[in-house]
């Protein structure tokens, strides 16, 4: 398409008729939600559900105000404000692409070191939900105990300076202090990250941080605020030149378009202390048994991503779809999930764990999704303990196989050594990359060193059934390579 239309409220009527645009007026919307962490996932997932409700003429007092607490969030703020906080969503269905412009977000708060604007907005009684997507590793969890990490420098700062916090959670505490003092009541904290029991995790972080500076406020938050558990699901690649070019193909000049698969799911506990939008009208599932849904998704989809991303990167496969086109990697995923992960996952209404495995294999193989192995492998220091280690523990406890999961862990260790099999360098891809790389390189000679990182593995180094298998796999990978190790597992290891 030769002529591009800059995305803005003023140009919506100039977009091609094939592009779905909002059917509501921005003037009819008012804010009810502050969302912290305006990445692609939020815009393709949670904001889309609200956008579709607005299209139905419903819940117009629940619009989103975007927010961020990191310096890098300021760049996203500039991009989105320049296009009136509109987003182009491009659905990548193997049968064809489609585009939709969404407008559920009506503003983006200034990104400030002391979070003053964010605190003031969350203290406004019109805000009834504060939602977050800040990554799995962003909740100040002690990996060894699962408890709150009160020693982190940012937490120490926020406890000593509660009116000038650095973190999103410190800002939430400061806003709730103002609301309590004014008699304006609580808000719901809604975690939208991939964490088991994510609402409970968010409660732990906010209440524990408040307790460090104001125990009475902490008790009030714990008693009055709600933190529903939720499961979120949609594969959303990062945005780069390819995605911007895809938007151009629809005639749209959008500096921050979002691509996503033709699937999304949101399952939430119906526990909102200050009300909520009628999200169920847009396809959200409300249930008292979120745990079963999130366990299936975190163990099989998120865990499955870790099964294939590290070997994919080591073999120079740049996208998840390419890993699924590799016979060895795809068979490895199927076997590990079938034999070592799915046995510990309960069914949900209408879906068994093996049904879900079939579904994610199709989703991962979608050739239209340019989801990179590098993105999926990022932050393994949070993702392996969260998505893989629980299945290892279940297998050890119940006497089911863990050999494939030991190979998954060995592949992560080999990945963290920092070179692919062709000798090319893997750039830093974890918040703790330097330490991980040093341990991984030492583990090439003494594999047990890797498992002695108790912050990730706890006491698993002391479980010979897993530890011995891990050490054998890491030695084999270093001696024979990734493909030969996968082939050995698939050919010779029995369930």
UniProtKB/TrEMBL annotation:
Residues 289-472 form the Mannitol dehydrogenase C-terminal domain. The keyword Oxidoreductase applies. InterPro entries: 6-PGluconate_DH-like_C_sf (IPR008927), 6PGD_dom2 (IPR013328), Mannitol_DH (IPR000669), Mannitol_DH/Oxidoreductase (IPR050988), Mannitol_DH_C (IPR013118), Mannitol_DH_N (IPR013131), NAD(P)-bd_dom_sf (IPR036291). Residues 32-280 form the Mannitol dehydrogenase N-terminal domain. It comes from the Bacteria. Pfam families: Mannitol_dh, Mannitol_dh_C. Keywords: Oxidoreductase. PANTHER family: MANNITOL DEHYDROGENASE 2-RELATED, MANNITOL DEHYDROGENASE DSF1-RELATED. This is Mannitol dehydrogenase family protein.
């Amino acid at each position: 398409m030769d002529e591009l239309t800059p995305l803005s409220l003023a140009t919506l009527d100039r977009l091609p008729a094939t592009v779905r645009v909002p059917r509501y007026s921005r003037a009819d919307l008012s804010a009810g939600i502050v969302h912290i962490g305006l990445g692609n996932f939020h815009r393709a997932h949670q904001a889309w559900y609200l956008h579709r409700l607005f299209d139905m003429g419903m819940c117009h007092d629940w619009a989103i105000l975007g927010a961020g607490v990191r310096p890098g969030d300021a760049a996203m703020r500039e991009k989105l404000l320049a296009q009136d906080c509109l987003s182009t969503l491009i659905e990548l269905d193997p049968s064809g692409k489609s585009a939709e412009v969404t407008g559920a977000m009506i503003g983006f708060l200034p990104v400030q070191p002391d979070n003053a604007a964010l605190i003031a907005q969350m203290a406004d009684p019109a805000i009834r939900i504060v939602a977050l997507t800040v990554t799995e590793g962003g909740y100040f969890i002690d990996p060894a105990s699962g408890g709150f990490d009160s020693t982190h420098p940012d937490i120490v700062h926020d406890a000593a300076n509660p009116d000038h916090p650095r973190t999103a959670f410190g800002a939430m505490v400061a806003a709730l202090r103002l609301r309590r003092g004014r008699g304006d009541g609580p808000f719901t904290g809604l975690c939208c990250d991939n964490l088991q029991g994510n609402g409970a995790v968010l409660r732990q972080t906010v209440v524990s941080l408040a307790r460090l500076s104001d125990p009475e406020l902490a008790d009030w938050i714990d008693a009055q605020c709600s933190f529903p558990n939720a499961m979120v699901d949609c594969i959303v690649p990062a945005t780069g030149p390819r995605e911007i070019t895809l938007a151009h193909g629809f005639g749209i000049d959008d500096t921050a378009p979002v691509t996503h698969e033709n699937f999304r799911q949101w399952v939430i506990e119906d526990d909102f202390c200050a009300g909520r939008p009628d999200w169920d009208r847009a396809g959200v599932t409300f249930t008292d048994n979120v745990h079963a849904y999130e366990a299936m998704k975190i163990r099989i989809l998120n865990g499955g991503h870790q099964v294939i991303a590290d070997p994919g990167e080591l073999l120079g496969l740049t996208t998840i779809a390419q890993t699924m086109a590799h016979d060895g990697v795809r068979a490895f995923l199927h076997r590990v999930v079938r034999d070592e992960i799915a046995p510990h996952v309960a069914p949900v209404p209408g879906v068994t764990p093996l049904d879900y495995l079939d579904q994610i294999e199709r989703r991962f193989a979608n050739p239209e999704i340019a989801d990179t192995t590098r993105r999926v492998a990022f932050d393994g220091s949070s993702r392996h303990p969260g998505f893989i280690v629980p299945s290892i523990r279940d297998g050890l406890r119940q006497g089911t196989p863990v050999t494939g999961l030991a190979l998954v862990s060995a592949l992560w260790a080999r990945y963290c050594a920092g070179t692919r099999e062709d000798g090319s360098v893997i750039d830093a891809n974890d918040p703790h990359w330097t330490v991980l790389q040093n341990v991984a390189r030492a583990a090439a000679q003494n594999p047990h060193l890797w498992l002695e990182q108790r912050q990730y593995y706890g006491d698993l180094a002391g479980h010979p059934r897993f530890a011995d298998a891990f050490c054998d796999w890491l030695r084999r990978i270093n001696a024979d390579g990734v493909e030969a190790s996968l082939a050995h597992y698939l050919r010779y290891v029995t369930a």
